[in-house]
Amino acid sequence: MTSGPDIADRRAAAQHAVAEHLRLTAAGNTGEWVELFAPDAVLEFPFAPVGVPRRVTGRDALFAHMSSFPETFAVEFVDLVFHETVDPGLVIAEFRSTGTARPTGKPYEQTCISVVRTDDDARITHYLDYWNPLVAIEALTPADVPSDTDLGVAFGD
What angle do CA 130, 61, 72 make, to 5 degrees? Predict the structure, then answer.
C-alpha cells in the first residue's frame, strides 16, 4: 500500500490537474488543455441535451469537441472546492462558471460538480461533468426568440 506522503502527493497532483482543466478551459487554450488527458480518456456529460454527445473518448475527439468552446463562452471558473476522497486519484470538485455566451451576450452562470479520475501520472482518464444544460440553452438562445409557455412543467398540486 502507498504511504501517507505519496498519497498526499498523488491527491495534490490530481487536484492540480482539475484546477488546470478549469484554467485552460477558461483561457480557451484547447491545445494545452487536451494534454491534461490520457490518450484514451473519456469525458462524459450525463445531462447533455439532444445534439450534444454524452460521451467523448480519446484526445482527438476531446480536442474536436472542445475546440469551439472559446468562441461559444467567455467564462471564468470560481469557488472551486475539492472534496477529499479515499482514492487519491479520484477528485470530486464543485465550482461555478460565470461569464457570457458569446453568440448572444447573455449571462452564463453555471454550477457544476465534476467527478474526475486520474492515473499515476495525474493525467485525467475519466471526467464526469455534471452541469445544467438548461442554463446553457437559455444563455445561447437569442433574446428575440420567444419562449414557449406551453412547455412549462408543474410540480406538486
Answer: 60
